[in-house]
Amino acid sequence: MKTMGISQFKAHALKILDHVAKTHEEIIITKRGKPLAQIIPCQNKDKNPIPGKLADAFIFEKDIITPLGEEVWESSK
Fold first, then answer.
1. Residue 77 has what pLDDT?
2. DSSP character for 66?
3. How far is CA 16 from CA 20, 31, 55, 70, in A?
4. Quick one: pLDDT band at residue 8, thresholds 50, 70, 90?
């Protein structure tokens, strides 16, 4: 988790917020070395899934006929 002083956050707030939204990295804002606030990415609470969220969960085969065998594939048509 990254930390930064409040003056640096104030000077670059929009850029830092864009970075948090993009990387989902949390940032602690400090004042005189003591933690003051924590910037965290917003959680998507919609019931609609995020496009591409499951993209890494699937394995795409180049040849879908061979694992089944010719006979099973022909009977499935």
1. 65
2. T
3. 6, 17, 28, 56
4. very high
Gap between the Cα atoms of 7 and 61, Å rounded: 52
Looking at the chain, the whole-number percentage of residues with pLDDT higher than 90 is 47
SS3 32: coil
The reported pTM is 0.54
Pair of tokens at residue 38: 């924590």
User: Candidates 3.40.50.10140, 3.30.1490.20, 3.40.50.11540, 3.40.1620.10; correct CATH number of 2-42+52-76?
Assistant: 3.40.1620.10
